[in-house]
Write a structure and sequence with these properties.
Layout lengths: L9 H24 L7 E5 L5 H10 L4 E6 L2 H13 L5 E5 L11 E7 L8 H11 E12 L12 H17 L4 H11 L6 E5 L2 E3 L5 H18 L5 H5 L4 H11 L3 E3 L3 E7 L2
Parallel strand pairs: 1-2, 1-4, 2-3, 4-5
Antiparallel strand pairs: 5-9, 6-9, 7-8
């Protein structure tokens, strides 16, 4: 699998937790629609700091089991510590690459959030997921799609510029339209009748976490985006004030910031 393009340092781990505080309600609803419930055995691929694993653990309860797998040992250590703090003893975390993951176990559900966007061969990963599910088991994916554009209102030039860079970066570096591709990828792997929904949060106001989320996401891609020639020198120099400027722009015109489009999709193995 390709390297995670957002980095794997402590700042990125914190960004993932911030992002999760915004997206977890949407993920919780998706897992519930997919039938993740008490007593199920769940595998979370590319689990990172364990946010989605913990959402799933809350749904399966102590009679179920959640296993998270990721290549980032630092993220896994943080995930395990946070799970212990929350008394979630029915989660375990495994260091490894899903592409090389081997087990005799089968699962009731295999889930992943923002993992296929970073893999060179998403279809291959979904094929592995199919093999890990027992008959009737469900695959659940939630992926950004930067080919979908929702502009802010009133017009917000700085916000628009950030998302212009995100769209260009993810189109070049990974799979910027992976969300829209989910239906095709799942059916091609043998899953019948995937159910997909596009959704994303919108927020504004003085206490919104969106400004920091956008700024820290930009910071995470900045070195590679700069290497690709996608950012100006003043945008590199202004990174430390970006969150404050995004906040000023939105509050100054009582505007609302749309997050990136995200496709949630699930399908059951025959």
């Amino acid at each position: 699998m390709a390297g995670y393009v957002m980095g794997n340092d402590a700042r990125e781990h914190r960004r993932l937790s911030l992002q999760a505080s915004i997206l977890n309600p949407l993920s919780d609803q998706l897992l519930r629609r997919a039938g993740v419930s008490a007593g199920l055995r769940v595998l979370d691929i590319g689990c990172g700091v364990g946010e989605l694993s913990m959402v799933a653990a809350g749904l399966v309860g102590p009679s179920g089991r959640v296993t998270g797998i990721d290549i980032d040992e630092g993220a896994l250590a943080l995930a395990a510590a946070r799970a212990r703090e929350q008394g979630l003893n029915h989660i375990d975390f495994v260091h490894g690459d899903i592409g090389a993951f081997r087990t005799d176990a089968t699962y009731d559900a295999v889930i992943g959030r923002h993992i296929l966007i970073h893999t060179p061969h998403p279809r291959g990963v979904i094929g592995i997921v199919h093999s890990l599910l027992h008959s009737g088991g469900v695959a659940v994916f939630q992926e950004f799609d930067f080919s979908v554009v929702h502009h802010a209102f009133p017009e917000a030039p700085l916000h628009e510029r950030m998302f212009e860079i995100f769209r260009a970066f993810f189109a070049k570096a990974v799979h910027g339209n992976i969300g829209t591709r989910l239906f095709h990828l799942l059916t091609d792997a043998g899953f019948p009748s995937p159910q997909c929904r596009v959704e994303y949060p919108m927020d504004g106001g003085i206490d919104s976490p969106f400004y920091e989320w956008v700024a820290e996401s930009f910071r995470s891609i900045l070195p590679r985006a700069a290497a690709l020639g996608l950012v100006r020198s003043d945008e590199v120099a202004g990174i430390d004030s970006l969150a404050a400027r995004l906040k000023e722009e939105a509050i100054g015109q009582r505007g609302c910031i749309p997050g990136p489009a995200m496709v949630g999709c699930f399908a059951r193995k025959r």
